[in-house]
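Render this sequence as a predicted structure.
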Amino acid sequence: MIHIVFNEADVAVLQQAIALDGSLEGEVVQIKDDFAVGPIANIYETEGYQQRRDWWQNALQYSPYTDQIDLVDDKMTVFNLIKQLNEDESLEVWIWMGQNQHDVCGYYWLMPQLKDFQGRIQVLYLNNLPFINEKGGIFYPSWLSEIQPKEFLKAKKLARPITLSEFEIDPDEWLKLCRENSGVRLLEGGKKIVSKGYDYYDAEILTMISAEPQKLSKIMGNIANKTKIKTGDVFLVWRIRKLAEFGDLEIGGDWEKGWKEISVKLKPVILE
């Protein structure tokens, strides 16, 4: 079997689970793009793909991940996946999802491309399910990487084939989101994704920034620890850059030297 996950941290934890249970033996493959943010219009066409790539190139500028854009080739990952499925008719694919918009949007992008293999594509959506944490307490994980490897052994019982009706309905839901092309996508519950504008997180970002200059790294730490924002740091820093362009923030330091050199503060309000 081939296991599909959508986060780098999930690869390691699933590999640890496989080491505990030989029945899970198989390659772990990651879909690397975050389809919960950015443009997705005509996502399967060359023009739409290039528009998305250009957007990511801009968002990744000055970040510690500037080489990421050349490493992420999910189209080739799917091409190779389909090739393996055609060559080995006994092969199954297991798609693992946590309860978050990143995984669910990745699933929506991926699954229409595997429709020809209905019956061999299993999904494991760990939605509203209790697990035991390291201290023995019960919790409801949003991300696969939050789950202990040994807990995956009971999770595997949830594997079920993606149904024919899902292969018909879910791509329609995804194409609707692609037409809306809103910039931010949120998980409301189940597999329901709603579209929001690129500025969706701006108000909450601004609450973490004061009139006194703060290092960008400190602001990002506060956003991670004190807000309900669940999106990547690259998108958030891109929005901070946009807020500076709009005149809401002042940036100190040289972007060319990377994030660590940057300080941010609210722009003073000048009363006329």
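Summary. The longest helix spans residues 164-180. The chain has a mean pLDDT of 93.
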